[in-house]
Amino acid sequence: MAKITIKQTGSPIRRTANQRATLIGLGLNKMHKVSELEDTPETRGMIRAVRHMVEVQS
Fold this sequence. Notes:
The chain has one domain: CATH 3.30.1390.20. Strands 2-1-3 form a three-stranded antiparallel β-sheet, with no helix packed on it. The protein has two helices and three strands; from the N terminus they run βαβαβ. By secondary structure, it is an alpha+beta fold. The longest helix is centred in the middle third of the chain and has 9 residues, at about 15-25.
């Protein structure tokens, strides 16, 4: 299955608990951390929920 690389660009400070939990679910918890995940509809939905704090690299 295809992989997708995600980089955290925004801070979870002053964000809702759901957004913080979504970042942790994506494997991100610190600024500029990069995570590589399978490209599934579930992953895409999580990225969409925190799209203002992450950057899709590939």
